[in-house]
Amino acid sequence: PEERERSATGLGHFSLRRCTHIDDTIQHHSEALATVPNSHRPDTTKPATLSVVTKPSVGSAPSPSPSPSLDGAGPLYAQCAERLSDEIRKGLRAGAHLPSERALADALGFSRLTVRRALIELGEDGIIEPGRRGWKVADRHVSEPPNALISFTEMAEYRGLKASAIVLSSIVRAAMLDEADQLRVAPGSALVEGRRVRLLDGQPIAVETLRLSLVTAPWMSGFDWTTSLHAALDKHGVPPQGSSVLIDVVDADIDEAEVLGVEQGRGLLRLTGTTFDQSGAPLSLDNLRYHPDRYRFRATLERLGGLRSPDQARFVGG
Fold first, then answer.
1. CB neighbour list of residue 124: distance below 8 Å, 6 or more residues apart
2. Structure pTM?
């Protein structure tokens, strides 16, 4: 049955930071009360009440929070998730706890069921994560949405961050036998290899090495390695469709340690694989080595019946 959303009229402009402050204040006073002798404690036999008054600016009427839309603007939980995400990006720090489901439902004008579904969606997207009490804003580890292939630049935009790159090298050379086999071109054919450091808001996140065949992508000889490769592939009519990835940990060598700002020998998360186009043809050979404290890989593993060996298991990666 369709759920009936409560009207948000008269609530005033919704501020997640204000709600969070109220919840944190209640938690603070609750902890302080635990240290007060029983004889000095207030009477708690009556339920406590909390009233929040929002004052309109002088000369203007109150600006009520817009009611949920049922006119086809998307599922209600998606509308709720979008509004919550916008509020989080406006200034809530990593680790900050969100208000309770009831407080969010009252402030936003959605039912608790819709708010709960929206919070689960934001959790799956890595924007929030479970905390000691309810949900909290996820830390600054970055990751793609689970089971989605997006570029580094798109991932940065998704997180509200600025992506950039420092080019370490760009060369054209002959493809070796194993590279030619993976790219499905003749051994010795021209191949372009670019190596760069990927940054978010100026902080180094990964050392990325990409190899593409100039037979299938001749325009790559003039590619600007400070820009998005996925955007260039889209522009030339060969959008990336999927990627086969192997994950392991390797020690940072002296060069990687220097550009990432870690100690030599520190473990780096390494992703190696091949990116394919819509027809299944290989586009690039990828090697990324991530800063150990600044990236998190998210994936979904599915258990299938009737497996005869671990090699038959299916891994769905992000």
1. 145, 146
2. 0.55
